[in-house]
Amino acid sequence: MVSVLGVTTDTSLVWKTAVELREMLGNGTVSAAEVLDAHLVRIDEVNPVLNAIVTETRELAASMAAEADRRQAAGEQLGLLHGLPIAHKDLADTAGVLTTRGSPIFADNVPTENAPIVERAQSAGAVMVGKSNTPEFGMGSQTFNQVFGTTCNPYDISKTPGGSSGGAAVALAAAMVPIADGSDLGGSLRNPAAFCNVVGFRPSPGRVPNTRTATPWVPLATEGPMARTVDDVALLLAAQAGPELRAAAALETPGTAFLPPVPVPDRPLRVAWAPNLDNLPIDAAVSDVLASAPGVFAELGHHVEEAAPDLSNAREIFDILRAWLFAMSAGPLYDEHKDKLKDTAIWQIERGLNLPMADHQRASRQHAALYQRTVDFFEDYDVLLCPVTQVAPFSHETEYITEINGQKFDSYIEWMRVCTDVTLMNCPAISVPAGFTDDGLPIGLQIVGPPRRDSLVLQVAKHYETATNFGQQRPVL
Question: What is the pTM (predicted TM-score) of this model?
Answer without folding.
Answer: 0.96
